[in-house]
Amino acid sequence: MLNILLLLAGFVALIFGADKLVDAASSLAKKLGIPNIVIGLTIVAFGTSAPELVVNVFASINNNTEMVLGNVLGSNIFNVLAILGISSVIYPLTVKRNTTWLEIPLSLLAAVAVLFVANDVFLDSAEANLISRSDGLLLLLFFCIFLVYNLMIAKGGNEDDEESETKDYTYLKAIFFIALGLGGLILGGRLIVTSAVGIAQAFGLSERIIGLTIVSVGTSLPELATSVVAVRKKNVDIAIGNVVGSNIFNIFLILGVSTVVTPLQVSAASFTDIIFNIGAGLLLFIFIFTGRGRQLARWEGVIFLLLYLAYLGLLVSQE
C-alpha cells in the first residue's frame, strides 16, 4: 500500500513538474518567435518526455534495465495508439507536409533503429542481445540531427503556423517555473522507480511489464493531457508534433542517455514490444494516406484504441 501511495505521489510530482516546465519553456519560446510546430516538436515534446528521461536515468543507475526499455517502448506505443487514438476521436487530425514526410518517417526510423541495436545475436552472432554504450552514443547522434532539423525550421519560420495559447510569463517567472518543474520531475522520478520496483516484487510481476504498463502510461500522462487540450482548441500542430516529437525523443535521447549510463540487456520477450512499436509507427504513416488527404480520421483513432487494448491483453497473457 505504501508503494502504491508513493507511486501516485511520484506521478503527481512528475505531472506538476512537466506542466510548469512546458508552460514556462513555451512562454520563453513564444517571446523568441519560435514557430508552433517547433514548440510542439522540441520544447513541449522535451517537457512531456522529461518524466520518461528522469525515470529512466534513475532506473539505469539502479540497474533496473528491463524497466528502462519497457518504459521507452511502452510510452511510444501508448503515444501513438492511445493518445493519437483519443485525440483523433475528439477531432480529426490534419497532418502537415513536413510532419508527413519527415517527422513521422523519422519516428518510424527510430523504432526500427531499436530493432537493429538490440539484435546482436542475429546480426553479430553474439551470445546475448545488448544495447551497448556505443549504441547509445549512436542514438544520441541521431538526436543531434533531429535538433539541427528543428533549428532549420525555426530559422526558416512557418507562414501558415497556427496560433496557440501559451502562458505570458516574465523572464524571471519563467526561469523560476522551469527550476520548480525540474525539481518536481526529479522528485517524482525517484519515487516512481523505487515504488514500481517494490510493486513488481510484491505482485510477482516482471520489471518489463511494470515498465510497459504502469510506468509508461503514468509518465505519458503529460503527453495525453497536452494533446487532448491542444485538440480541443483545434491546435492540431501541437497535438501531433507533441506525440511524434516525444517518440523521437524517447528513443534517440532517452534510450540513448539510459544506455550510456548503463548498457541494457534485451530479453527475448522485449522483441514483441519492439515489433509492436514498429507496427504502430507504420500504421500511423499508412493511415495518413487513407480517406481524405493527410488526415487521421475518427474511425482510424478507434482502430488505434482497439489495438492498444489488444496489446494490453497480450501483455497480460505473457505473465
Name the descriptors.
319 residues; mainly alpha; two-stranded antiparallel ribbon; two-stranded antiparallel sheet; 12 helices; 4 strands; 3% strand
Structural write-up:
- The chain is an all-alpha fold.
- Helices cover 80% and strands 3% of the residues.
- The strands form two sheets. The protein has a two-stranded antiparallel sheet with strand order 1-4.
- Helix 2 packs across helix 7 and helix 3 packs parallel to helix 9.
- It is globular.
- The two termini are 22 Å apart.
What's the helix and strand layout?
Layout: H1 2-31, H2 36-61, H3 65-90, E1 93-94, H4 97-117, H5 120-124, E2 130-131, H6 133-156, H7 171-203, H8 207-219, H9 221-232, H10 236-261, E3 264-265, H11 270-287, E4 295-296, H12 298-318
Antiparallel strand pairs: 1-4, 2-3
Helix pairs in contact: 1-2, 1-7, 2-3, 2-7, 2-9, 2-10, 3-8, 3-9, 3-10, 3-11, 3-12, 4-10, 4-11, 6-10, 7-8, 9-10
Percent of residues in helical segments?
Answer: over 70%
The biggest beta sheet, please? 2 strands, antiparallel
- According to DSSP, the number of beta strands is 4
Q: Give Rg in angstroms.
A: 19 Å
Q: What is the residue-averaged pLDDT?
A: 84
Which shape, going by the Cα principal axes?
Answer: globular
Distance between the termini: 22 Å
Low-pLDDT windows of residues: 159-163
